[in-house]
Amino acid sequence: MENSDQSLWNCNFSHIYVEKDAVNNVNTKTILRYFKDANKIYIDSYKEIFNRSHQSFNIQKKSINLILAIKKDNFIYKGADVCENFGNKYFYYTSSIMNCIYNCEYCYLKGMYPSANIVIWVNVDDTFKEISEILKQHPMYICISYDTDLLALETVTSFVNMWIDFAKDRDNLKLELRTKSSNFNSIANIKPIKNMIIAWTLSPEYIIERFEKDTPSFKKRISSIKMAIDMGWKVRICFDPLIYVDNWREVYSNYLNELFNLIPAEKIYDISIGVFRISKTYFKNMKKQHRNSYILAYPFEYTDGVYSYREKDKNELVDFVYNLCKKYVNNCKIYV
């Protein structure tokens, strides 16, 4: 699959819903200029569209609409236990956007949200204000591309630019930008900052073609990674989630050998490894939406509120990938 992020705009966002309170926000005006031909509908609350009953996530994914709204509260969340904190005591995440332009079969957002439409919280400055208050108490490590892919939407929002500008003079703030995007060009003109990590989720092309619909190909992601590394950015590689398929040993062996032939291992900041896992509620909702899903047909084990692969399968998969990575990268830089 040779999708570029830009091509996704051609079939999406024919309609943009704008909260009346968001109309005069500078980010609203910027986004509306980008989609000047879209139909604009003004609403009192994003919930009128996003939280409607009897929506079909799958049907909406064929033509996503956009909602511009003002976030009222809950700007910052403490990091979840199922997420890697990379040794950071004060681990947080934030969502400037709800939902993702991509359509990965395994994505927990399908079970989390009633709608496939995308909500952009245009008042990102309010998030910065809350972070500034927390930083007065202690340092922060914060994932800024949670529940979405910020870099994929950067051409529209410029939010990554804003985050970089906010963080560059705050040494006690560390950012992680998680992405599958090939849209690095949108921030290529910015000087790298030492307290931000760009974390690319990578998968074998075999997995991308079958389960990561609308995402850039392996080669396109690698191209962006090379650009980022050459410019001096810290780049994390995320093998997460690993997907258990029939020929997984062959798939992941070929993929990792190709990856480390293309990217100098010593240039990689660190590596994260994880398997598919999802909460009970999200899993139940996903099963309703995707009754014929190959991934969800696996006989998962349920432990401590989370569904994941059987212990034997999970350990074999993780150990296999971990041991392959150790051939190229010091194990102190590999997080499992």
TrEMBL record:
A Pfam family it matches: SPL
GO cellular component, one term: endospore-forming forespore
InterPro entries hit by this protein: SPL
Any GO molecular function: S-adenosyl-L-methionine binding
Domain of life the protein comes from: Bacteria
Gene3D superfamilies: 3.40.50.12110, 3.80.30.30
Name this protein carries in UniProt: Radical SAM protein
Organism annotation: Clostridium fermenticellae
